[in-house]
Amino acid sequence: MSAAAAVLRRAGWEAFLALAALATLAYAAAFVPNFATAFNLSQAAAGVSEKALLALPLVLLIIAREIDLSVASILALASVVLGVLVQAGFALPAAMAAALATGALAGALNGLLVTGLDLPSLVVTLGTLALFRGVGYIILGTGSVNEFPDAFTDLGIGTVAGTPVPWTLVPFLLLAPVFATVLQRTAAGRRIYAIGGNPDAALYAGVGVRRLRFLLFVVSGLVSALAGIVLTARLSNARANNALGFELDVITIALLGGVSVFGGRGRLTGVFAALVLVATVRNVLGLSQIGGDAQGIAIGLLLILALLLNSAAERFLAGRSLSRPAGEPPGPLIDQAPTPGRSTP
Hints:
Helix content is 71%, strand content 0%. It has helices at residues 3-31, 38-47, 49-63, 71-87, 92-116, 121-140, 150-157, 170-185, 187-197, 199-204, 209-235, 246-256, 268-287, 292-322.
């Protein structure tokens, strides 16, 4: 086996993404004016806060061979509920609790339609994507709520103890280790991988497939609502068209991070690297006065390029493995999903 193949085999897609993210950061710091300032780094982190939150439950769903296209619409609906209740004079904690409950109920509806009626999640959440945002328009119309308590909006624009870390990123920083631990180190995580790898085999092995999938949709709705609260605080604005198009960015981050669209494979560590890479690219393009549409084109090309490189590397290593010396063990480029009953590395 060549030295290059051995390096690729050991490094894997996650290491490649991490190196790409670090290289992009180094280039931006050296050659892009104002990139390395504390203010810009804080704004870049704040701008990706909601998408980072949405990516956490979506990764688990995709690994389990499901998808939730309605995450951005649930975010907007929760934002509307929060704004309307605050405008009506409700205390902020009560309004936030109602927004979270709204997200959980929306996720439960998705879960019931998918697991109770055996409908494909792609079709269900494509429908509820329009449904939830439409409900937001019914509640608030095309208007917006812009008056919130100062303590709430201060969190939306403030940073932690004078550091460049914005408060809006804190929910993600607290939840990310929890999601990673559940996925990589617990029996629930092994069941999610088992469902994605082979749902029928998982069912015969005693995994509660329907129950676990339903819970994943509820968690997706709940975290989406939390992202809605974060976005409302950051923008000091609640309206039905908040987070329009976020779901596409989040899916791109998940797939770029190495999560298999066919389920059963992927880890959050790769998604974190993809998140940093996408956020850095968007920020650099923004500092270069390149607009949102062009940024979308760049991110789409980045995803296609990543998939092509990943596929080419897998084929290269597969070809090398056919001619490997006797006794040399095979090894995939991307970490495979753990089998039920085994711990995840």
